[in-house]
Amino acid sequence: MKKVTAADFAAMKAGGEKISMITSYDYSTAKLADIAGVDSILVGDSLGMVMLGYDDTISVTMDDMIHHCAAVARGAQRAFVICDMPFMSYQTSVYDAVKNAGRLMKEGRAGAVKLEGGTDIADQIRAIVKASIPVCGHIGMTPQSVNAFGGFKVQGRSIDAARRVINDALAVEEAGAFAVVLECVPAKLAKYISDRLTIPTIGIGAGAGCGGQVLVYQDMLSMYSDFTPKFVRRFADVGSEMRKAFSAYSEAVKDGSFPAAEHEFKISDEVMEEVIKAEGGELS
Ligand code: KIV
Question: Which of 105, 120, 139, 263 has its CA 20 to 30 A from that of 167?
Fold first, then answer.
């Protein structure tokens, strides 16, 4: 099966086809998303919150990302796997950025990496692209900057702030990124940026004018109850199905109805008799 690539993203933008992207952090979910026909799987550092239970993405490590990305890569036959570079794996220097992007490709088997930031990290994007690693940008509300922003807040609402987001988008494109995620940006501004750029924009809380959309799968399946952003649509209530199934399982274990005969492995009475005889007892 032919893998989706950065070149396909460009073709989809040129042909007016929207790009679908979803997060995954493990083999089984990646396989389901892949079979469902999702174009791209993002191994987001959101895994720190939805998989590991942190309050934010700051504590996520390179080893966390590599571990989860390698699992996703094994499950994705067609989807383009993009892996997040975690906090402080690229902000520190251009050297660190290239070295760590290389690790996500070699050890995590990613197809591309994603970095948060615009003008401030354009040099890092340029150097990673020069090392033949495709880069997806990420601007607007960048969760790794939560402490600088003073919370998870919509970006680009004032004239100055909107112009900053536009400059970030242009810098990311100029540095060689093949796409850019726009997170929590007013829809009209996101549409303006999407029309102005030659690379596709992937929106999350950025309205319908983007070239594609990305959601965290636990949000869209109602599996993460700590916080649900305004921009999430709940496509299914998998969370409540899981709760019901876990509770039914627990009750079945306690009342003895699970496991039933059909779940058991058999051994002949003759063999069992011999075993018990050899042990000095009797078959009950
Ligand atoms: O980490 C992540 O899941 C992301 C998306 C929210 C875009 O960066």
Answer: 105
Over the stretch 171-225, which tens digit does the pLDDT of each residue have? Answer: 999 999 999 999 999 999 999 999 999 999 999 999 999 999 999 999 999 999 8
- Residues 44, 84 contacting (CB under 8 angstroms): yes
Residue type, 208: A
Query: What is this structure's pTM?
Result: 0.96
- Which residue's C-alpha comes closest to atom 1 of ligand 1? 44
How far apart are the CA of 227 and the centre of ligand 1, in A? 15
Name the residue with tokens 């088997």. Answer: 109
The answer to whether the CB of 180 falls within 8 A of the CB of 201 is: yes
Ligand 1 contact, 216 CB (< 6 A) = yes
Distance of alpha carbon 23 from alpha carbon 33, whole angstroms: 9
**Sign, CA torsion 112/116/118/119:** negative
Radius of gyration of the chain (CA): 24
Under a CB-based contact definition with an 8 Å cutoff, are residues 242 and 225 in contact? no
* Number of alpha carbons in the 13 Å side-chain half-sphere of residue 259: 5
Pocket test for ligand 1, best of 21, 25, 46 (most atoms within 8 A of CB): 46
